[in-house]
Design a protein that fits this description.
With 166 residues, the protein is of the alpha+beta class. Helix content is 41%, strand content 13%.
Amino acid sequence: LAKTGRIVAPGDGNDLIEIVDVRDVADWVVSNVERHRSSAYNVCGEPRSFRTFLTECSEAIQGKATPVWVARVFLEREGVKSAGNMPFWNPDVPAFEEVSSSKAHQAGWTVRPFQQTAKDAWRSYSDRIDTNLPYPQHQWSYDWGISDALQTKILTGWDAQSLRGR
């Protein structure tokens, strides 16, 4: 999102995502220990569409990229895998992104604004990692991210398919 130009955005933008800031989780754990509160709680952020997620991330980091929403079936034909090649996008387990934190909220669970998390995460990432790192990166027996060449191929193919469909 920080780079100029078009980027592949997976799906139609309606898949849900829940993000939690680990700092909020840490505060929650400490709070529970201090209050001697013992129970099981789900702690996560509010579900948001992937479109909203990318928009909020872009706004938080003053992104310059233009997302192009590419259908899942098209991405799959190009060999793109959810979650790995498209981090955070996990349409294969839709209920995973609809976990309720209502019990935790009733007990005092709070979260910072998502854009603050996005801004801080980007700052932390760019302080530690070269932001021009080539993708995909191989880690823990799988690749995450997609190469610039594959992204260009996908966008070119998607544009051509869209033009034929008109």
